[in-house]
Amino acid sequence: MKKLKHKKLWVALIVIILLVCLLFTGAGYYFFTVACVPGEKSFLSSSSKVIKKSDPLYHEKIWFKKTAKEKWYMTSADGKYKLDANYIPHKNSSKTAIVLPGYMDTKEDMGEYDALFHELGYNTLTPDPRAQGKSEGNYIGYGWPEKDDVKKWINYLLQKTGKQQQIVVYGLSMGAATAMMTSGLKLPQQVKVFVEDCGYTSVKDEIEHEAGVLYNMPAFPRFPLVEILSGINRLKVGYFMGNASSVNQLHKNHRPMLFIHGSRDNFVPTRMVYPNYKATKGPKEIWVAPKAKHAKSFSKHPKEYKKRVATFLAKYIK
């Protein structure tokens, strides 16, 4: 009788454990879909396409809207997807800025940054990241698979325009993390400078932060949910989120880098800029833009932003 009772208890315990595992796996898959599958995101504020004269970047946005763009296409580094980009030439310039959009942004959302670099005498190449805009793809990679696409875009640019290029890689938010992750790769010597604006320390750090801020999720069940999400990401996208580290890639970078972050950034918290800044091995500068929210440093301080970027680039690109 006792043996039968014990057996029932063990069966009940195993059933409960399996149900809990299924529950957590289902929740992990839900959050993977929210975070990594392209589509409308309730936690992102929708940006209006109407350009108002009160916009501090009105002239830059109007310039972009009126400017002719060349359409460039390339296959992703893993050979799976067709990628789409805008290329805007600047007379006979041999300086090019590769401009990397943020999470769920497109090349069309980066017009003011194209305008900034064009004003400084640069051609601009602005690709849609895989699974965003008009680029193909099934999942958002948060910069890790995209870093290899950026390296391929660099080589493609050199093939199209000649070997005399001087290249700056600029990124905003997820694009900034992509830029930092790219900096740790072996790149052509024509890549001279990086500029990152509000990038995260690692994909896992950012996902954990978002779980806490967006869903008010305490330490449990944030662990093990983020670990489960990371495992699903490994199966679907090809990497564990903890391995997708800007900090680790920056340890391998010896090129100059300008770090920018808003002092009131709650989406990619301002504190993340400091370990990123510390990690890089090359010449570096940091600017924490006063009172600027996430990805708003340029619109909050347009003149200072231009001056900071122009001054830094002038030290390394002639």
Question: How would you sum up this structure, described in words?
Answer:
This protein is of the alpha/beta class and about 325 residues long. About 45% of the residues lie in helices and about 15% in strands. The protein has helices at about 1-35, 60-65, 110-120, 145-160, 175-185, 205-215, 220-235, 245-250, 275-280, 295-300, 300-315, and strands spanning about 70-75, 80-90, 95-100, 125, 165-170, 190-195, 255-260, 285-290. The protein has an eight-stranded mixed beta sheet, sandwiched between helices. Helix 1 packs across helix 7 (about 220-235). The longest helix has about 35 residues, at about 1-35. It is elongated, with a radius of gyration of 22 Å.
Characteristic key phrases:
about 325 residues, eight-stranded mixed β-sheet, alpha/beta
Brief rundown of the structure:
With 318 residues, the chain is an alpha/beta fold. It is built from eleven helices and eight strands. The mean pLDDT is 93.
- The count of helical stretches stands at 11
Summarize the helix and strand pattern as letters. Answer: HHEEEHEHEHEHHHEHEHH
Q: Low-confidence runs (pLDDT<50, min 5 residues)?
A: none
| Largest sheet, spatial ordering of strands | 1-2-4-3-5-6-7-8
Q: Class by helix and strand content?
A: alpha/beta
Q: Tell me, what's the shape? A: elongated
**Number of DSSP strands?**
8
Radius of gyration using CA atoms only: 22 Å
**What number is the mean pLDDT?**
93
What percent strand? 15-25%
From the N-terminal CA to the C-terminal CA, the straight-line distance is 87 Å
Q: Percent helix among the residues?
A: 40-55%
Oligomeric assembly: single chain
Instruction: Characterize the largest beta sheet: strand count, sense, and whether it forms a barrel.
Output: 8 strands, mixed
